[in-house]
Fold each of these.
Amino acid sequence: MTDTMKKKLIEAYDAHSDAIYRHCYFRVFKKTRAEELVQDTFMKTWEYMRKGKEIDNIRAFLYKVANNLIIDESRKKKEQSLDELIEQNIFAEPSYREEKIFEHNIILAEVKEKMKNLGEEDQNLITLRYFDDLDPKDISEVTGDSANNVSVKLNRALTKLKQLI
Amino acid sequence: MSNLNFWGKLNKLREDIKLSDERKFKIRDYLINEIDGTNLESTYGKHTKKGIFWSQLVLSKYQKRYVPIIAGFIIVVILGSGVSFAAENSLPGDLLYLVKVNINEEVLGSLTFGVKAKTEYEADLATKRLEEAEQLTVSGKMDEETQDSIETNFEKHSKKVSDGIAQVQSETGVTDAAEISSKFETTLSAHEQILRKLGDEASPSVQSHSRGVEGKVKARLKDASLKRSEFDTNIASSDSGEQNQSKLKDIARDKINGAESAATALENFIESNKEKIGIEVRTESEDKIKLAGDLILQANDKINSASYGEAFNLAQNAIRIIDKARVLVSASTNFKLDGRLINKSNDNEDDTGEVKGIQIEAKNFRNRGNNTTSTFRNSDNGGRRSRNGKND
């Protein structure tokens, strides 16, 4: 039983860890924290599975767990200045050229500035839709809302974001 | 920034945001370790912050200095997790390859004691590098970087084998040194031929890199052959003192027994895998077994005429033929090579005759060392093929 659960979780990790990372990253805008959130997300999922609880849609479940962790995170995080964001030099991986790092950081700062003016729920919806490529039906499984409500809220959030750009 | 530009750049940015391979594997390792370590109660909460750090301690090549210190503690955890096992099949260029060579092999090496065992272990590692080269050639992944990795590590292990043989000779005697030297020469010879064959069938770019590795093997093979010849001469003309002769007789007898066992094991292996082995290969291997059998007969005659050094060398020769045939038979099944692996003109065998056949792993020298039993021996047939009534 444990082996089956372990296999399921590791398969889910191999399939979805990048997506979960991206989701976390565009919510917290910190590389190392996003990595920790990925780890925490999968560990919490494992704890849930160990209790013998079934997960029908593990992808949606992972996003739910990640979102809850991010909400906890947002209660603690401070506002980050544009300068701090650039200084993090998040893209300073060996493969990145200097100009790409600079451009990415500028865009990130722009995105963050735009997103922070949206509410928590709107940020989540935008991230799930445009960064995680989830459709409204998938998003509804994450948020617990109906697919129709998700579509409506998403449109409103997008309208707000476009006005900010 | 215009609306269009913003979304376009955002999409591009989104493609670039992902976990690095290193981080992805580290978190994965941590998850597996946590899952495997969890029994009745979750210890997750205690490890939240430590997880990645712990994995860094274990996996980072830059923290290799910690490995000797904590090897005794972490080895059980590593081997209990999926990491070590997964790393074992990795090749140069794979992320887990660093785990394989810097941790797995180092830790296992540190648990090997005695100069003979350590030298045999280094020979095993040199063989592993050649097997990796073969897999890279077959998969088309042999390039400049992987070639360099293979060659560097192969040379490192080969030098240790060479140094180790010299040390074994001075510490435990020439016959032990001769045995290790002979086995190493056999495996180099077999893999040199395998690499050549695989290189022949590879694309030009892969072939050029594979030939580079082959060249390194050839150079080491030449040295090993020279060394083996020296040992043969040394043993054949060994001291005629009674005590030494008695000891040499026992050693020669053991070597003959080992040759017989190896021949039986190869026969059993071929029998068990005959569906995977082509008819031509099987025929050639059986010819080799017969050739080895002739040498064993001659070795027994030499025992009877008290020429124990020569008996030892003949038996050693027989084992070389069997071992090489075994390595080659295995390779033919692994890489699905048909027909003759060895071209007559390229065969570098001298007085042992041609060795045609396919690969078998001549790995794990330790298992075939002192007790002279073959790795594949699992039959009670005994295999006293060549004894005559006059043998003691």
Amino acid sequence: MLSPEIGTLASLRMHMSRPFQIAALATLFTIFSLSLWRLAFVASDWAVLALLPLAAVIGIGFWPLTLSPWKARLHIALRPESQWGKRLTGKIRAMVFSVAFTLASVGLFAWQALRTTAPEALLLALIFFLSALAYFLAQNLLLRHFHQPFARAIATSLTTWVVAIPATGMIAWFVWAFAPMPGTMLDAGFQQALQIGLTQLPPRGGWLSTLLSVPFGYEAVKLWVVVQLQDYPALAWLFSLDVAFFSFILCRTGIVVAQFIDTHVLHMPPPSPLGEEA
Amino acid sequence: MTLSEKDTHGATLAPVQDARHNPSTKMESFWRAARSDVEAEGSGKPARQSSLAPWFWWTFAIMAALSILMSAAALWRQGGIQDGSGSLSPNQRIASEASAAELESLLDTANRSAAEAVMQQIGPMLDAAYQPAYDAIPAYTDFHYSVWGQYAELGTALIGNVGDKLEETLFDDLDTHLESVGAKLEIVFASTFEQELATGLGRTIASGTGIGPMTAIAITDATHRMMVTAPVRVVAVVGGGAIARTFARRIAYRLSVKAAANLSGRWVMVGTGASGGALLCSWTGPLAALCAAAGGIGAYLVADYGIVMLDEYWNRSDFEDELRAMIDDQKAEHRAALENAVLARAIAVQEEAIVVVEQHDFTLRELSGVGNAAICRTATDLVSRYDLMRGSLRQRNPGAMQALRAAANELAGDFSIRRLAREITENLEEADHITITSLVIEGNLPTDQRADRDVSGHLHLNDSMIAIPRINATEDSGFRFALETEVVLGQETILNYALAVEQHLRIWRNLYFGGNGTVEIFSAIDEVDGLEPEIEVGLRLGHDDNTSSVEGLSTTPIHGAEASLSLGLRAVLLPELQNAPNCP
């Protein structure tokens, strides 16, 4: 039988590797979903099915991140005898935010998955992994000082900003320095630029292509503007920054997916800071 | 036991009393069961184990398996395309753009493979095209070694239709065959180019992917340019008629030589025949003369026939060998012309591919001022150094030339500036060739030997020798030679000169004087700008009394009279650069 000290150490070691496991699992899950989407999209609009698991995970994972802090604040703010507690449950708000974030993140991911090059995809996957990992490390630290759900909420916000800001710079620089832009844009007119952007979609058409024509067309117009105003180099940086703001969504999604896996997949009681079992 | 918040990851909320009285909808109970961050309602029991884990794992496994399977299927289909056994519709491929470097490598490999394939086909195709000519050699030889044939060849040479029989016999369809060779080589080049492109695309792009639309456009553009650039079939080759005329002239010349050589023998036979005929025809009375003449002609023909038979016996194989050798030479000329055409085509296709690649993609860095500033600084430096050399020979000293060449070679791999670098390298090939266009040699002979007598001689400039015509020299003013030359110094900057002068005396034997020197061209040019500077060097002319000719003259005197040598230099004007990047 293990001594309490060894059992505590083993438990601690296991719990220290847990954030890595969760972050890796979250990254792989997202990668498989998006790669399946990309492989299948050229053939059929049914490829959208590949995004449904990711959307479900994001929606389910985002829900408690929105609802729990609201309920905590409501609990503090409302008087115990107030009847408004029956109405102000926060579920509608959480539903709206969850749906909005899920649609935005899945839509952005789907678009980026179709146009990203391999090096850029690697960079984004790394940022995704780091944000998930950093979230757990931050939460473990903040739990010593804050109650739940505030520890989780603060860890989410803090990790997003801490990881996303340098990631924004990295992605912006990468896009500015290495992302290839079609040479035909240099001499293209406005309509021709739009056409060039839309040629990246498969020629079969479909409702998905119609939806995706919006971001692809927007990207092409943006590049056309940068080309026309190439005498103002700052605009090129703005182009890159515009693309890199995606990194904020990326980091938050990494946290959300990791949160889901932690809560619903690899759920286990965490160790107390002093190694004491409950 | 109440669980601590650390155990539940949940809010330390008091159970919401109202929740116990509100009926739960299916969705609410589902969400409650899914959430582990809410305490069990007053029961003190631990949160229920999540039911989503199995769903998650199954989904994860299915997505992973499907991704791997679809990637493998795409790989297999890609392999089918390379084997030609399958086809991949555009809808089944994932768009992936090749980078400019990848595209350039693809096009370069395809171009090289196509050129090599064509080069390998030239020999066999030309052999096949010329084989009928080789096969017809015996037939023509039979014609050549016949009395009628020889007279026909001489006759056609006289009236100007040289080579008709040769063309008809040996080179009847050669023009058609050669055109066919050109067309087939075109097909080989184009098909190999396209096949190599397809193979390269299969290797370069990641498995399960096809080429993106931009890359497809670039490939199509490059292929189209390849099809219309410098086609091999239009290369100018000598046709069968011209070949036949060339051959026939040589054969006719031989015939005329033979005919002249054998003429005496023929006339002997004519005489014998005529006299013999006269004797035999004496019974014919008044017609005896005609009969004798006929006998003479007959004897002439018999003599010719005999000569031809003998000639054939001794020389037929040599004649056939000579014909074969002439055809071999012609075939070799054709081969060289076609190979040069293929090389020219490959170079032209490469130039077109560069244009395509440069239009393929760019980065914002290249477009913006930051990245371009570095390129522009480098380009400006190169252009300014080149422009200095453009119109000034003085600036083309070996050190500066070497430095500029080295800088251009270093930048040959830089995508943004390599066209400029390549253009500079090509233009500088002629830059250091200096031509001496004029010479003025002034001076006088040593005092003791001065006289009002003509002088002549020659001047050596490195390996060139320039004859100096005879001119009049006076005792007081000496001599002045002014010559126009076109001596090319090449890349040498050291000029060794040696002057040999012969004084033409009337009574006594001529006297000989010599002198030499060395000058470094660019040191002599000094501060003179332009492409046609003049330099002046000095030398001493000393008398050499140990020689009797200007060729054996020693040009290294210790003492002597001063003379000067003015050289007019000329350098090629370098063309303006066309490929400098657009910089502010």
Amino acid sequence: MTRSAIELPTGPEDHAIARLAALATLAWMAEALLPSPLPGLKPGIANIVVLYARFRLGLRAALWVSALRVIGGSLLMGTFMSPGFALAVAGTLGSAFGLVLAGGLPGRWFGPPSHSVLAALGHVAGQLALAAWWLLPVSGLVWLVPVLAGGAVLFGLVNGLVVAHLLAPRGETPPAISR
Amino acid sequence: MIGRLAGTMRPGDWGILAAALAGIAGLGLAAWSSPSGDRVVVRRAGEIYAELSLRRDTSLAVPGPLGTSVVEVRRARARVASDPGPRQLCVRQGWIQRNGEVAMCLPNQVSIEIGGGRRPYDSLSY
């Protein structure tokens, strides 16, 4: 007989975050299987899920989805605590910073594409900062900056447009909630 | 479909996009262009023989053990115009203009190097 039971009550928001985190993890793993011409240059389709969470559930929920994705994804891929994982975390922190920054923008003028581009640029900046600090000499990375930043803007824009389109049919007016 | 997607863009979105692209263009120029030097340092037997400004077209005869090497500066570039060495490698190298670029006439112990501002490389080997 159990003498004491620890029960963690979960609510609908937790379930929603868990669902979206699972979806984001799946998307990220699927994308990891696709080859990319340059390491670090990826469409980032998992970010569509994160952005969707941001506009449907709020900034806090989006950050949760992002964090769960990077940890859960790396555990499933077997890269947890590897240098690749460190880079992924750096990117996630950078994109979180970008999302927080974007949260300050008035929703009337700035929609999902802005949040997406800022988060994508934050992601690239975070990864380059870690690589420069820990892995490679700065001179070796300098030429990468315009390429990765260009990719971030391009894919950030595409993802942002996809999210805007996903939200539009419901008549949503982003941004929704900021908690 | 592109039109419909573009319709979801708000004014601020276009602004962010434009600013990001401008920033990347700037970064690209800064990262991918190497600085041009403003002078050429002529060395003979390892020691600095003369420093010529790239801003003025000029020609300089440098005496060495094998004979005279002629260094020429024209239109912000420098080259070894003639050299008594057997293989003429420094002459065949042609014009140099980027900071840190070097042409060396080893038999006659003459070399020219573009300098000015920061040197991007500690040494260049060919």
Amino acid sequence: MNLSEYNLNINSDDAELIDAFKDGEKNAFNFLVRKYQKRVYWIIRKMVLDHDDADDITQEVFLKLYKSLDEFRGESKFFTYVYKIAINYSLNHLNKNKKIINRKVDIENVYLISPERRADEIMNDTEKTKMLEEAIECLPEQQRAVFNMRYYDNLTYEEISGILNKSVGGMKANYFHAIKKIEKFLRCHKKFEVIENN
Amino acid sequence: MKTTFSKEELIHSLPDFISDNIDDKDLISQIENEINTNSGFKFEFDELRKTFLFLNSASLDGPQDSYFNNLPVRINEKINGKHVNPGFIEKLGLLWKILIPALSIIIIAVILYNIFGDKDEESKVTHDSNNQKVIEKNQTDNKIEPPPQNDLVTPDDKEKNTTDLPKDKPVKQGNRNKKHNRTIYETKEENNLSEEKVTIIQGKVYADLINDPDETNGNEAEEDVLYIEDGEEDNLEEEFLKLTPEQQKEIIDNLNNTQI
């Protein structure tokens, strides 16, 4: 059967696309790419923070997916499977490049982006983006992954524990500590007053 | 049945409580109760709430929409092997593209160095078949120190002279650093006169003789420097004795005039 006989499109069910792919219709994979490319990109982007790195890893993830899709048994959701590959590649990238993931927030070395600014001034979007990147960069690898999966992707703790092969209670604690680290980062940069006034 | 949660479970659930991500009503009510009754717990709640205010208002910069239009194309290219990492053979081919030019440059550099590098001047002495010692010199840049005065010898002091070369071998002057004791004869022709000036020097060659401007310019030398290995003085003596008395006297007079 060719693609037209499968009557497939980007909105087709994952299982149908995967079955068509396994039957030899390799073009079905293109629909899977178009369906999940943004989500995969942002999973990776929130982990590695750099766009170029995220671009490279995204391509690698889909290449890996193409090579391993024949072996996918459907025991978990397809996107959970994809998510797991993306997170693992991101964690490997962070480990490999020794990114600053355990930046210690030194309360004594507090600095302001602009010390002359008044506490009631509003942060612009660029400053918020920069602050967010730096805050996420403070998080250790696993806390960063849990934070992104819970806060941005709204995965359950059970799904997160399945992806990372950790306990549910541990994932909950990881999430709490990730938020606390971001709180400490913002406090050390004296941004809480600015946040309250926004 | 109402579930009782520990203080740790309650505080770990605060982020989800703030994000409205809790479905368990018992948990929600216990958290609310703790906030109302526990000032420390309330403080934690307030601080986390500020953090979420910031997180909700901030976002990362994303790529342009066109990025996602051509991402599938690039992924396809990668799948089809257009951007596959080169294999070993391809890498070897790439290596040769770099290696061959590099080797060429190194070889050219070595050749140029050999051509334009410093050369040592060599002096050669060839033996004349008619018992005349002819010395040929090549250009050299090396200075040669004059021999010490106490090294000057007369033909009678042949006992002090030793040589490594057999007597019948041609005289050669090679390396100026050789320790051979040599007897050097210098002849000089002036204005077609038959007068010969003979200088017997033992040891190292005088630098000024070697570096004679006439010699260095390739002109015919007015002074010919003869190098004779020690041990061959016996031949000279025999030849001298073969001469007529008049010839012997003439040679002796010349020697006396040269103040040797």
